Amino acid sequence: MFVKKFVEKAFKPGGNLNGLRPDDIDPRPVFHYGIPAGSTLLAYDSIQKILAISTKDGRIKLLGQDNTQALLESNEAVPSKFLQFLENQCILLNVTVQNHIEVWDIYRKQLSYVHIFEEEITSFTVIQQSLYVYIGDSLGNVSVWMLDQEQCHFVQMKYHIPFSASHGKTTEVADNAAVLHILPQPMAESKRVLLIFRDGLIILWGIQESKVIFITGGSMLQSLSHETKKVTAACWACPFGSKVVLGYSNGEIFLWSIPPISDPRSDIQADKDLFAAQNVPICKLNLGYKMDQIPIISLKWAYADGKACRLYVNGASSSVSSNLLQVIMMNEHTESRTIKFVFPLPDSCIDMETISSTSDQSKQKGDFLLILLKSGQLYVYDDSTIGKYLLQCQSKSPLSVPKEVVVKLPFSDSSITIAKFITNDSTLSTSTAKDYNLLAKSSTPLLPNDMKGKDTSNSCLTHFSGFAKIKNLYITGHSNGAINFWDVSCPLFLPISSITQQNEDDYSLSGVPVTALYFDSNSRVLVSGDHSGMVRIFQFKPEPFASENNFLGSAKKGCSHIIQKVKLLKVNGSVLSININHGSKHLALGSDKGYVSLVDMEGPTILYQKQVMSELCTDVISLQFGTCSFHGFDKNVLLVVTKDSSVLAIETDTGNTLSNTMVHPKKPSRALFMQILDGQAISGKGSDTSDGLDSSKGSCVQDTNPKQSFLLLCSEKAVYVYSLELAVQGVKKVHYKKKFHGSSCSWASTFCTPHNDVGLILLFTSGKIEIRSLPELSLIKETSIRGFTFSNSKSASWSDSSICSSFDGELILVNGDREVFFVSVLSGNEIYRLLDPISQVYQKDLVCLQEGPVCGPIIHKEKKKGIFSSVIKDLKGNKVKNGQNAEVEDSKENIEALFAIFSIANFPTVVANRDSLAVEDDVELNIDDIDLEDPGESSKAQSMIPGLNKQKLTRKFQAIKGKLRQMKVRNEKTSAKEEHEDEKVGTVDQIKKKYGFPYGETSAAKMAENKNKIQDNLRKLQGINNRATEMQDTAQSFSILANEVLRTAEQDRRSS
């Protein structure tokens, strides 16, 4: 009866203050399940096994282990250009098209810092196992940035690579000067980095030397091919960094040779041979892109023990060809023939990523290739299966074509046509949080753990003993005729039962879409209607049901253990609306042909069937039982609403219309929702939630002091509150009205607060949600669900999207077959279990097993021939030369060394020059103050200092060397100047002598003495410079030795 009380309050002065309060309302998304629409980029943390997917509208979806999922939203709804993890560091870096660098804390799921980059970012590369990032811009410069973990800020280091020092051609056109790819050289990430410019120039840069080590590609290649082409994609094609593959805008693909890391003593020889190498690629791959001038947009190399090494090549979307993604084997047979596989994709690929199994329960560990299509679909291939297929092509054995798996919601292969959501706060569930946690981990993962191709849509059925014990029950009707029941007590879809039964003897799927559902748990009745007009009344057995784990059963058994009997009847047209009068046990049915049928459920027997003739559209979209005053008498009426927003009242007992005219707006629009606001008891619990505030205990209860009742009607263009009494008589009396401007309304429903206040939920096609009071239609709160768009298809009777709500304002929005939004309206209403654990994708307690150096793959010592044998040969040569203890960098040591290198400016900038000039004016270094005595005793003392800080000492040495280098340059300039002055002094003395004036012989002698002193000081400075270098090397060696001793001691302590 709280609706009557609410209506009474609404007409009292200040009644709104006691009604729906803003403090009670907080519309918000609480969970997102699936793959977001508009996905564009992929990133993967191989240690934490977290997949990140960015979208066009600034969202980032995180998929972790054990079905954990989280959704991040940027401040600006713009696409991403680059997306990369700092692996196992709880940090995700996102670069937007606005050149904003976002630092995301994925443990707290919040945006920690945003840095606005001044130039256009054209390349973005994280140095793995570190906190450093290379950023290349459109001007050809490369800067180094570091993440300050304590402040979670992005800090620019002093080290940088200017365009003039790397590329060298300062006259290069700005469009061609951009650094498109920055690739740290494998096995030498802290020593060398490969810079690839848009014009095709390839530069191998020595980080410690701060200079170019190797140059290839570029304008020479352009002149040879007599056509302008630009680099569009690049990747390494060797685990030791000796080969790199480049894709170009004209469809060409070249393989280039790069000198691998070698002994530091050979660096001098490498400098001499810098320009000696021939500027010619070692191989050209002909895959058909060149013929159609299809640009290569991405390349990905996969190492597979040397035999099935493969290169994934992706071409830009083109009307000429649809099969643009293919993989080619790169081994010794590539010289004779091309072994490749073209992926049969329905749409063009926009990104790809290789991931490992996302569940610890998967016994067989393997890699999977994720392919993101332009349509937003995500395809998964078994990477090892692709390798086997290529090997089979090589040996000409029977082929086993790789099969794909499409990532989608666990709703079987048929789409949802209708859905209901029932929440029950009074449910005393016997399942604990631990039980749900185990179910969540064992439920069907969104990303597959294996590629066996089995149907996993209902493979994990929970223990089900009755609907009354389910806190959140979600019922879905499908296009193939199936009806599925899901437990969404935690925001995952846990299947509990499925109905495919057609009658008492037929348990097969009908194949006819389900178009209407009504469920009442109190009377244990489910009524379904389908597209052919067939209505089925399922009567469930008393609960608890028989203890069984699999409710799908066999074709003979079906769901007989939960269904007591099935009743069938047929109506004219597709069933669109269903409602039940709980007092009379009558069932009302509405069809798309305008027929309204009243059925006695005991038979079932059709009491009467009446066709409603509307002016524009006869589809009956809603039916409501009610009681109102008609010419001084109470009448039981059945309110009928057609698709064109026309309202007609029918006398329930006789089926006669109470008026010859229908109530409708001046401008007809598509009707969405209808509800009677009167004095009926409205609990909503266990009732048909699609019909809003429908009662489960009776259709109406008379109030001793009845007040005016209303009829709520929502359409795409406006919402109306009519007088119910006058609407029954065919008279339109609008008490409240709200027109929609901008986007159209796509869905509407009512909800009830714990204080028995009633509100209206409006969802618009743009994703905006409005909460309005009733009956005044005042706006209480509004929000927007980013990424959700709803379109009412006019050509089909159902849409790709499905929306339903519970009596307490909990919404489930299904967007196609890939994503679901869980939305709550009431403040503090937390109905989902395990929301925090399921949303936590980052595992703080995860220990990385690979704490030591990153070793290269094991290369089998096989004899290789052909062009690509050079790749294998290089791998063998490095492995044999260096042996088991190959020159593999210790990551921790080298990262510490990088801090010392990156903290010092290697090239002066305009600001740095100004600062240095100011410093030189204020501070002078007196050469006489430098102690140049024998450093023997001092060195011994230095070696005995405990806890020597290598980084600080290195920075001091580098500062001294920089200052000495500046003094040396200044002294050289002074020496040249003094020589010129000597010439001037000699000329002056000769003139003085000629005219009899005294001339200064002592002045010339003094200048000569100063010259000798300066030369002596230069020698001393050179000696200090050499000794500083030796001390730096000694300190670094000492630090490495100390860390090794500490590591050994720690291992001994753990073993003891």
Automatic annotation (TrEMBL):
Protein name: Lethal giant larvae (Lgl)-like C-terminal domain-containing protein
Chain segments annotated as coiled-coil in the UniProt record: 1004-1031
Top-level taxon: Eukaryota
CDD domains found in the cross-reference section: R-SNARE_STXBP5_6
Gene Ontology MF term list: GTPase activator activity; myosin II binding; syntaxin binding
Keywords, sorted A to Z: Coiled coil, Exocytosis
GO CC terms: cytoplasm; plasma membrane
Protein's UniProt keywords contain Coiled coil: yes
